[in-house]
Every structure is written in C-alpha cells, then in structure tokens.
Write a structure and sequence with these properties.
Helices cover 76% and strands 0% of the residues. It is mainly α and 304 residues long. The chain has a domain of 201 residues: MetI-like (MetI-like fold). Helix 1 packs across helix 12, helix 4 packs antiparallel against helix 5 and helix 4 packs across helix 9. The chain starts with a helix and ends in a 7-residue tail after the last helix.
C-alpha cells in the first residue's frame, strides 16, 4: 500500500519541480526584459543569429562568399548594387560581412562550449573532491594562468599553424582555466550546503555528488561568464585572423577582412569600416547582455 502511494506521489513531485523551474525561468526572463538596453541587445543578437543561419543562403553575390574575383568592380565605394562596397578582388562586402556572421558566431559558440566541457568538470572535481586532486588540477591551472590569455593563444596558434580550427583550439586551451577556477570556488561553497551533506550521509558515491549535485548548481556564475566571454572570443578570433593566425583567404571572416584592408585604408574606407562595425556591435551586444544576465542571477538584485 505504502509502496503504491509512493509510486503515485513521484510524478507529482517531479511535476512540481518542473513547474517551479519553469516559473523561475519566466521570472528571470521578465527581469532581463525590464532592462531596456538588455532588451535591445537580445533583439540584436536574435537578428544576428538569424542572419548567421539564413543570411549566407540569401546574399546577393554568392560568388563573393566563395572567393570569386571580378576585377571590373574592384574597390568600388558603397552603391545600390554593392551597399557596402567591394574589396580589391571585386567581391561584394555586404555578402562577405553577412557570411562572416555565421563563421564568427559558430566559431565562438564552439570555443565556449569546448572550454566549458574542459574547465567546468575539472573545477567541480577540484572543489568537490579536494585533497591531492584539487592540488594537481589547480597547479595545472596556475601554469596556464601565469601567461596572459591572448599571448598564450597567439603562441599556441603559431605552434599549431594558421587556420580557423587551430585558432579555436588555441583559444580553448588558453580559456578553460578561468571556468575551472569559477566552478571550483562554487563547488567549495556548495560542498557545505545541507543537500550535499545529506547526499554524503546516505552514502551517495562521490562521483554522483560532484556531477549530479555540485556541478549543476555551480553553473550560474559560469553562464554569466560565458555570456560575457562570447564577445571576447569573437574579438580574440578576429585578432588572430588579423595577425594571420586564424582564418585564411578567401574565408569571409571579419578579422581577416580587416587585415586585408590595411593597404587600402586611405583609399577604400568602407573596406575596413563595415567588418569593424560588425565586430564592435556584436561584442558590445554580448557584453551588455552578459551584464544583464549577471544582474538577473544575482539574488540581491531581485525584487520578488
């Protein structure tokens, strides 16, 4: 009888937990949308993602995206036929800037995801297990953090060779320790909470405590950091491409376009301007959105 009652109550508890999580998500979304600047950035990022998904399929000059050459229209200023002008090979800048959104956003998303997959579990292990595990992981983290992240990414990219894939890998290898430190600090605090002590008292395996109880509850600050880092990763990828260590021609990557425009800065202002504006507005939007998410996830800023 009691077993039957227990079986009947399990779905009810699960549905209540799901309803509470949905309510919490709605409240956080409402708080985020109350910030007018964050709301504008959400709309901008949404449009940017849409452009990244369907834009390259709808650009007016697909050959320009693939690296086609038309010297008859090289270095033309913005016009009705070429809204953002053309480059030294006669390629349409509007088509290439639109196509570059997919490259920059996808590369940044992959970079953040890989850095999280590498850094977050290590941080949870270091803070949740402690002892020799914590010492080994954090000494490795200290070695990586002893170098400025950008310079370390440049050194790794030089060692691996110039390509967009190697640039992404270089940033991942220089970025993951930050997530490890954030998660470790959260794990040390969560380890003293009652729900973790209760799980330990009933004999829950250490692995389950770390990855099922500590790690999921330590992701709040990580989400904020990842949203802020998204813009910085785009900027770093552009910097590596500008230095010739990232995407290679004819890939329509924003940083590479700025690199190629250096020799035409005085005669073709549009060549450098529009890729630069794309990078600036994208980085600014993600930074503002990250600040908004941080305010929402900070309990002290809540009014309910």
């Amino acid at each position: 009888m009691s077993a039957g009652v227990a079986r009947l109550r399990l779905p009810r508890v699960s549905s209540q937990a799901l309803a509470a999580r949905v309510r919490e998500t709605r409240i956080r979304w409402h708080l985020l949308m109350r910030n007018k600047l964050a709301r504008v950035c959400v709309v901008f990022i949404g449009i940017l993602v849409l452009v990244a998904i369907v834009g390259p399929l709808l650009v007016p000059y697909p050959d320009s995206v693939r690296g086609g050459v038309d010297l008859n229209v090289k270095l033309q200023s913005p016009s009705w036929s070429h809204p953002l002008g053309t480059d030294e090979f006669g390629r349409d800048m509007f088509s290439r800037v639109v196509a570059g959104a997919r490259i920059s956003l996808s590369a940044a998303a992959i970079t953040i995801a890989l850095a999280l997959l590498l850094g977050a579990p290590l941080g949870a292990l270091a803070g949740g297990v402690g002892g020799i595990v914590d010492d080994v992981i954090m000494r490795i983290v200290d070695v990586f953090l002893s170098f400025p992240s950008v310079l370390l990414a440049i050194a790794i990219a030089v060692f691996l060779g110039a390509s967009l894939r190697n640039a992404v890998l270089a940033i991942v290898l220089s970025w993951w320790p930050w997530y490890t430190r954030i998660v470790r600090s959260q794990a040390i605090s969560l380890k003293e909470r009652q729900f973790v002590r209760a799980a330990t008292a009933i004999g829950t395996p250490k692995r389950d405590i770390v990855f099922r109880h500590i790690l999921p509850n330590a992701m709040g600050p990580v989400i904020v950091q990842a949203s802020l880092d998204f813009g910085y990763v785009i900027l770093t990828l552009a910097a590596l491409s500008f230095l010739g260590l990232g995407a290679q021609s004819p890939t329509p990557e924003w940083g590479l376009m700025i690199n190629l425009s250096r020799n035409y800065f005085l005669t073709a202002w549009w060549y450098m301007l529009f890729p630069g504006l794309a990078i600036s507005f994208t980085v600014l939007a993600f930074n503002v959105l990250g600040d908004g998410i941080r305010e929402v996830l900070d309990p002290k800023s809540r009014t309910y």
